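Session log. Operator J.P. requested a structure for one protein chain; no other inputs attached. Running the standard single-chain path with token output.
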Amino acid sequence: MRSITHAASPASPYYSPHGTEYRTSKAALNILMTMYSARLKPEGVLVIGADPGLCATNFTGDAASLRNRGAAEPADGGNQVAAVIKGEKDVDAGKVIGVYGVSPW
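Structure written below.
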């Protein structure tokens, strides 16, 4: 939802005029993460965005509906985040790691 590349491509499943405010806030997180990465890299700190993807949580109050839309189980999203925390994605510092690998800007 935060990728400008996807938002601008009619071929993308994320090409949609909906969710403007939500998507804008996610794009802002991209630049914040990028700037922290640049600022902290000289100190040896790696900054990596972890995107768990759409997960069937109770955030919306209807996890079943999310599953019907193809959402992953919450544990799967947790595994995405855990891979970053464990250092398995350190090579991709300064980027956002999602379900499909490095997410495009």
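Operator note: The chain is about 40% helix and 5% strand.
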